[in-house]
Predict the 3D structure of the following.
Amino acid sequence: MNLASRDIRHNFGRFVLTTIGLGLLLMLVMGMGGIYRGLVQEATLLVDRIDTDVWVVQKDTRGPFAEISRIPASLEDRIRAVPGVLSSRAFVSTTIQRERNRQPLRITVQGLSWPEDKGQWLPLVAGRALGQAHYEMIADESLKLPIGARVKLAKDTYTVVGLTRGMSSPSGDSMAFFTLHDSQAIQFDLSGEAVRLERAARYGRARQIDLGRSQPQVIERSLGPSSAIPALGPPAISAVLVKVRPGVDPNQVQSIIAKWPDVSVYSSDGQRDLLVSGIVDRSRRQLGLFRILLIIVSAIIMALILYTLTLDKLHDIAMLKLMGARNSVILGLIMQQAVLLGALAYIVAYIIGQWVFPWFPRRVVIIPEDLWMLAAVVAGISVLASVLGIAKALSVEPNEVLA
Amino acid sequence: MSVTSRNGDAVLEASNLTKIYGSGHTEVVAVRDATLNVARGEIVALLGPSGAGKSTLLTLIGMILSPNTGRIVIGGETVFDHHRAQVNVRRFRRQHLGFVFQKANLIPFLTAVENVRLAMEINDQSSRAAKRRAMELLNYLGVGERADHLPSKLSGGEQQRVAVARALANHPSLILADEPTAALDSVRGRQVMELFCKVAHEQNAGVIVVTHDHRALDVFDRTLEMEDGKLRDAVTTSGRES
């Protein structure tokens, strides 16, 4: 006869409520692990998906994600000439916040090197890749922009032609993909007044130097658009993505470019490590500590619950001892309840988690390894938590039945 | 002080039992040099005012408390001697002793039949055999039709019958009952006392019943009295010599 199950059946309502309460607590522990995994996945998503071998960024920076990187757009052409390089493409990444329908709209703008890169590598769930050089965008579905939606960014209006799922930046903002020029237009957008003031300032500086005074055309050019002034050059890009030819060792290409004094070079794995160790590391440690605290709290609460359940049964335990029951019978009663409580709470945590986690604002990724580890931890704390109750039960004297 | 059975086949031979609580100024002698023999099939009443030491004597015999001095032999096996238990106390209790108290002390989350089964299952009997015997006992004690009810759904008398069934479950050689009828009315109290008498005679077990109830003393084979920890033969109001 299983005493634990009989006791639970007798106090079913209380046991169910206790299980749900503990399950919610374990769901938080499970969620913490999932949030950490989500952070890593969000941080490395683009690096893992973008299909490149080498990242070239501004010298001595850890760009373009962990740190700002600005390199001249011409670097793309310079890299294309390196032996072993199959293709190179410019990459721009910047985060903007606009308002749409009176709601803040945060977008991490990614520039794709049209026409080589149309975003065909993206995990599209609807629509298509970019089909023209301007005014089209691929948005993540978390931005809640349907196919065909028109969004005004900077001075232009863009049409959503494709939707991705789960594409977010290391900071958790949803991504949208544009052609490189469009993304630069969004990134470096200036108001008309700002342009006029810059031209006036430029004119003033040109008038103060000998070249300006001796060459009237320079003063005249200073009043025109920036693109017409060769000295100013095109806007900077964030990085250049390099794909090596089949059979070529990416390390070989990386070592050649790494010798250039104006850039830093990372492999895809290196870029991934930068993201994980830089952006995610502190969050990971913070979540880890919080997770440990939650496990300790769960263990304490579980111990108190089991202790209280044991206190309720002290008279019965004394009677069992008086009848000559072995300690194993009494241990079994408490331990089985503890393990059952832990197991059911774990299942409750999993089921509720599956329902709740998708509503979290940031990605929560539950992987089987984490589930197994938490199951082992729950089993451990179930046993540990029952120790207090067992100690109390074993200290009960059979003559307490007479009290 | 010695009180012995007339029958030579003793199930209990307790000699020179003394139990002292506290020490120094707070010392209380609860049982003083008590000697008691009970024969198989004999039912003995233990009378006395509150605080006389009746329950303490019962707990000493039941190996719930240890005496300071004395020797206890149950079923021919020395269980306490030289200030220490001579057997595995819990094993001995579950195999040879049965207890009934003022309160039935049934496990509240087990049905009547499960309460009786439990006593047998913790004594390593198979579940099937335990269930069969539990039902036999409950039927024997007239509560068979209440077998599947929880204690909270049973009357006081029914609960006490289930407690008696539980005490009988493992064919104990000695049954110890501490005021088993205190919570019952006189009719039900007498029924329980007659039940003990029936059990003692039919199951050939020794039975010691601590009681304040003088109305049912005629069912006992012998009546003992305790006062200030001392045990002696008693003469009942019915005039039956113990």
In short: Residues 113 and 199 of chain B are 19 Å apart (CA to CA). The interface with chain A takes residues 55, 59, 62, 64-65, 90-95, 97, 99, 101, 105, 107-110, 114, 117-119, 121-123, 127, 150, 166, 178 of chain B (CB under 8 Å). The longest strand of chain B covers residues 10-21. The two ends of chain B are 15 Å apart (CA to CA).
